[in-house]
Design goal:
By secondary structure, this protein is mostly helical. The chain folds into two domains: 13-89, Arc Repressor Mutant, subunit A; 94-200. It has helices spanning 13-28, 30-42, 47-54, 58-71, 106-113, 119-128, 133-144, 150-157, 161-178, 196-200; strands at 45-46, 74-81, 84-89, 94-97, 101-104. A three-stranded antiparallel sheet has the order 1-3-2. A hairpin with a 3-residue loop joins strand 4 and strand 5 (101-104). The termini are far apart. Residues 117-178 form the DUF7437 domain.
Length: 209
């Protein structure tokens, strides 16, 4: 019989692993991420309202709602609006550590979710790959905090200035809407204003805006 000590896990190891799995699932399924983001920024809302805002079919919307419930990031409430159940989504986040630590939260999930409906994001991904989106989000956040310029973003990402302008404008329309629902951005203050008209052109709209 071995005298080796039994392996132990930190008390929150299971929770951390679950969050990582959920974030990975959302990042890997852009339409699901987009539906999740709409639920999150409009919670509580109905599946019908979310699908109408995002253009999903009824069957797809309910499939995504049930998937999010199974993942533990959304739930159907015992409340109703116009005869339909209200749903609430909760923010999910986690750290990805390699050479540096990257905080993955609702803002990055929202940007990945928009890649199928935003031409500028789709073009950026086609040219540079999905992995380039996360650094683009971080660089855009730095720009919105007044820490750099759009040309500085271009230098940081190693892309032409025209691409940096297009991708930062696409991302800022998203993170401005999602910011208040992303705990990883709670300590960040934006110094650059994003015009309401620009936000209206983005993929996510707050129903109460």
């Amino acid at each position: 019989m071995s005298n080796a000590p039994s392996p132990t896990q930190p008390p929150d190891a299971g929770h951390t692993a679950h969050r990582f799995f959920v974030v990975q699932e959302l990042l890997g399924t852009p339409d699901l991420a987009r539906f999740y983001t709409d639920l999150l920024v409009n919670s509580p809302t109905t599946v019908t309202a979310a699908r109408e805002r995002q253009g999903f079919s009824k069957s797809t919307a309910y499939k995504y709602a049930n998937t999010l419930a199974e993942l533990g990031v959304a739930e159907e409430l015992d409340e109703y609006e116009d005869g339909s159940s209200l749903w609430r989504a909760d923010p999910v986040s986690g750290d990805w550590t390699d050479e540096t630590t990257l905080e993955l939260g609702p803002a990055i999930i929202a940007v990945y979710g928009a890649t199928g409906v935003d031409d500028d994001l789709e073009l950026f991904v086609d040219r540079h790959g999905k992995a380039a989106l996360a650094p683009a989000v971080m660089a855009t956040l730095a720009y919105l905090q007044g820490e750099t310029t759009r040309r500085g973003v271009a230098d940081e990402l190693g892309v032409p200035a025209v691409e940096a302008i297009a991708v930062t404008q696409a991302i800022e329309r998203i993170v401005t809407v999602v910011k208040d629902h992303d705990p990883t951005l709670s300590d960040i203050a934006f110094e650059v204003d994003v015009h309401d008209r620009a936000i209206e052109q983005g993929p996510y709209q707050r129903a109460d805006a």
